Amino acid sequence: MVRHRSRRCSDLQTVPVDNTYREVITLNGRDFQRHAVENSIYFSPVDDDEIDRLQYQHELFNMVFENRLIFPPVPRPRRILECGSGCGAWAIEVAEQYPECEVIGLDVYPYPVPEDTPDNVDFQVDDLNSPSTFPPNYFDLVNSRLMSGGIHVNRWTNYLSDIFRVLRPGGWCQMVEIYYNAQSDNGTLTANHALQVWSQSYLQSIQHYKDPRVALRLQTLMTEAGFVEVESRLITLPLSGWSSDPRDREIGAANRANVHRLLSALAMYPFSQGLGMSNTDIQLLVAQARSEADNPAFKAYFPMYVCIGRKPGSSRHGHGDIPRSHTPSSKGGRHGDSRKRAR
């Protein structure tokens, strides 16, 4: 049976998941975790459609990252933590790749995961807005992916401090965040276009609870938390297959299906409850934004930031290596020209 357990506040022990974490509310045909939305933790759906999208998005990221799950040099990991494990795809693949490693996936919702999950992966339910109860110097790697929709706006500094504390000396943190502000590679998207209306509406609808621009600050946050050898990279993630570069065109073509579902999934709750938009108006805006995302004339993309950093210590196995895509790396706050277009 697949394990779902809740963290206890005092030690490493876990308890069975309280059924309140499984309760959902339905809005415009989508299911949301009651606990998450009522406590302003997470506003995206948790239904089967979203689980399918998250699995598809993981496979898309495997394309982007050239099937590399771990970017820093961690040759023989003993313990790995994933923050925001979602459908569990990343944690399961890491557990299969490193069968001697204990992999723990944390999420606020007990997503169903396959029954043939490897024995060395453990999924636990916890709110990452609360201080971590793991002991210090415990993990070799912490993976934090797409947490901008889950971490409270004022929590990010302490969130990074918690990650730093639970890593062993020499351990690594890797972070991936998308800045959901659609950009145009040729500058043709204006404030009046649906993709920009969707983007600004999304940023506005969650900014009192979340930091939707945190992707732009990952390098600063990691450096301020005490990490060294911090490296950041901007990857322009095409919303459809418009690129002249064959690999980016393939990624964009694959991302098209994800974007079509993402534009609706991310918008449904915050647009209706936060902005007071009707379901009809939301669906009309989403349909228009999808059409523009598909239009090769706009060359639309989301900026995606990848950042890694090491906790100081004696154990070192070389430098990290983030997959490049077509965008140059950045160190010491210097970024490629593509970042200058991220508003």
Automatic annotation (TrEMBL):
Pfam families found in the cross-reference section: Methyltransf_23 (PF13489)
GO molecular function annotations of the record: methyltransferase activity
GO BP, sorted A to Z: methylation
Keyword vocabulary terms for this entry: Methyltransferase, Transferase
Keyword Repeat: no
InterPro entries xref list: SAM-dependent_MTases_sf
Region of interest called Disordered, as start-end residue ranges on this chain: 314-343
Homology family: Belongs to the methyltransferase superfamily. LaeA methyltransferase family.
Designated name of the protein: S-adenosyl-L-methionine-dependent methyltransferase
Organism: Triangularia verruculosa
